[in-house]
Amino acid sequence: MRIKGLLVSASIGAAMVVAAAPPASAATGYDRCPNFRMCVFTGPNGSGAIAYFSTGDGNLGDSSGPVGMNNDIESIWNRSGHTWELFDGVGFSGTRWVSRPYVGPNNVIPAAANKVSSLRDT
């Protein structure tokens, strides 16, 4: 009987510890970018809306991809492990900028800020 009473007390104590733990907070900024994806953000330093890709999008302005990203990308994080190309024209045309893997999160260069209309994994 004594062992049974100790197990019940230990179980209640463990439940109380779990209940006292603070709630998990939602990811913010660059931390919203999942592994193995190319993430783009509408604001600097990973702020604003986020979209993430595994292969790319030939026209960020059409209705079949993420809404609000066309000509509105200010920061990126390439967590895909691949090199990505970003273009100021649809269909992977126009001026091309390159994002190398494993560089970490960054604001896009001023020449590309708010000008990306298509992007792809190379």
Task: Please provide a written account of the structure.
The protein has 122 residues and is an alpha+beta fold. The chain has one domain (2-121): Crystallins (Gamma-B Crystallin, domain 1, Sandwich). Helices cover 16% and strands 27% of the residues. It is built from 1 helix and 8 strands. It has one helix at 2-20; strands spanning 38-41, 50-53, 56-57, 75-78, 84-89, 93-99, 106-107, 118-121. Mean pLDDT is 85; it is low at 1-19.
Per-chain topology:
Elements: H1 2-20, E1 38-41, E2 50-53, E3 56-57, E4 75-78, E5 84-89, E6 93-99, E7 106-107, E8 118-121
Antiparallel strand pairs: 1-2, 1-4, 3-8, 4-7, 5-6, 5-8
Rounded mean pLDDT score: 85
The total number of structural domains is 1
Enumerate how many helices there are, as a single number: 1
Number of extended strands: 8
The share of residues in helices is: 10-25%
Major pleated sheet:
4 strands, antiparallel
DSSP strand content: 25-35%
CATH level-four homologous superfamily name: Crystallins
Structural class: alpha+beta
Distance between the termini: 67 Å
**What series of H and E elements makes up the topology?**
HEEEEEEEE
CATH class (first level) name: Mainly Beta
What's the CATH topology label?
A: Gamma-B Crystallin, domain 1
- Which architecture does the CATH hierarchy give at level 2? Sandwich
Going across the major beta sheet, what is the strand order? 2-1-4-7
Name the shape in a single word.
globular
* Low-confidence blocks of residues: 1-19
Radius of gyration: 22 Å
